[in-house]
Amino acid sequence: MAEADTKKMIDGNALVSMCLSRAGTDRMFGVVGIPVTSLANRAVALGVRFIAFHNEQSAGYATSAYGYLTGRPGVLLTVSGPGCVHGLAGLSNASANAWPMVLISGSSDQSLAGRGDFQELDQVAAVKPFAKFSAKATDITEIPKSVFSVVDWAVAGRPGGTYLDLPTDVLHQTVEESEAEILIAEALNSRDKSLIENPRIDNSKIDKAVELLRSAQRPLIVFGKGAAYAKSEIELTKLVESTGIPFLPTPMGKGLISDKHELAATAARSLAIGKCDVALIVGARLNWLLHFGQPPKWSKDVKFIIVDVCEEEIELRKPFLGILGDAKEVLGLIHKQIKDDPFCLGKTHPWIEAVRNKARDNVAKMEVQLSKVVVPFNFLTPMKIIRDAILGVGSPAPVVVSEGANTMDVGRSVLVQTEPRTRLDAGTWGTMGVGLGYCIAAAVASPDRLVVAVEGDSGFGFSAMEVETLVRYQLPVVVIVFNNGGVYGGDRRNPEEITGPYKDDPAPTSFVPGAAYHILIEAFGGKGYLAGTPDELRSALAESFSARKPAVINVTIDPYAGAESGRMQHMN
Ligand code: ADP
User: Fold this and answer.
1) pLDDT tens digit sequence for 59-112
2) What cofactors does the UniProt entry give for this protein (predicted)?
3) pTM of the model
4) Cα-Cα end-to-end distance for the chain
């Protein structure tokens, strides 16, 4: 047989899949079509699990959360033009939240550029505001280097979104398999190792941080989703417990140390941030979620110690002390240093007593509200029932996905997080519509955990069709929809706002009243429940939690129970 007949040729689609697999990608999300269907099939054949969605937006949100939950970049695959544009929702969300993600889009044939090819778009230009690094493989030989660089850049420094552009002609080009192996080996060898290394920590700053914490009268440790991403829970717990310093998690930091811990200042948030004199901020930005670190919420004299992997973040906030480094490593060093010359505030320290008493009072006040059974449901009555059902699951604790204005606000104060990375919500950008995507990511990333979404009907509606995806992959996800018939609920307009030729249209905030969201999932073979009373809700939760199968619980909420814009009415 002639030598040429024995040579195995592979195309660009196969080569991309091989490289992704070598880069450690084991899950992909996306919507297939021209020219990337074969890429998805090839990836699956190499052992990658490909989760096929209905919409790239939702698939993109899933990809972003997958990167956060696993610490490895999620990969989103889309078609060219509109597919890539839909994927930008996920890419921008990843960058805004500092989560690693790679968007891979097919693009039109290079020889036809500028002539109106099928789904043609300058995609590298389109992704620019949202991607910290982009690569375009203009020839099949460039594929290995491009794939490894987008994967490495996604996790480098502050994690974020990267983009890989794959023109149709490149996906169809072929090379011999043996040459492909050589290209892969060369690309692996020339990988920039500095991208995946953590910054070196300045030990003199560790000394200073320890001195500041030691001499503080009212210290506080605040941690966020950067600390969660760094998997720093063991070091954080050791630091908190050895020093007796109270802690405050940001919404997604919740669970790194259990909300039930006696040093949790969550229920005394205003007092803790308003009165602390030294605040160690770990993997959290002093942005709107933390009131920019400014008065009146914070004391004007507070000394911030910021631990962050991103130098620009430290420069931006100008803290008293900035420590550049990975949260887990920095916390480990601080704890080690304190262990050599320990200090502990103790239960009778006035600051600890003040925080504890305030937290106890606030929890007691909340429990009084929660103990009232209000039907038709307000937000608190069903939230308490859901809280108890989630806590009843024990360990491994469910991942809670939360979005919506009132539903998320109430959920943040009522739901209890006991384990790390078990809360996903609208995040830094307040992104609505993330719910179903986040549920799918969580179920894929943590197959041993139940996933429970507690979301408003508006948030659910953004991607409700993905309930079919839940059923198709038989994911253990229970979606609880707080159905108050609209964005914020019923029509709240002033009479003078109801005028003009379209005054009889439904209000911009209104949906069809009593929408049967539970029936939607039944169209695909999932389980739906309608719950308007505590007994109905308890029974639906008990059955769906033990079944661990896709379910939607449609909870009827009084349309006037919530407030417009939740707790952010001042921003309207
Ligand atoms: P939150 O919303 O919980 O307040 P943010 O997303 O605002 O959290 O902030 C997370 C911060 O964590 C970002 O500034 C990011 O640069 C930082 N970060 C990401 N990874 C790490 C890490 N491994 N160690 C320390 N900081 C990190």
Assistant:
1) 999 999 999 999 999 999 999 999 999 999 999 999 999 999 999 999 999 999
2) thiamine diphosphate
3) 0.96
4) 76
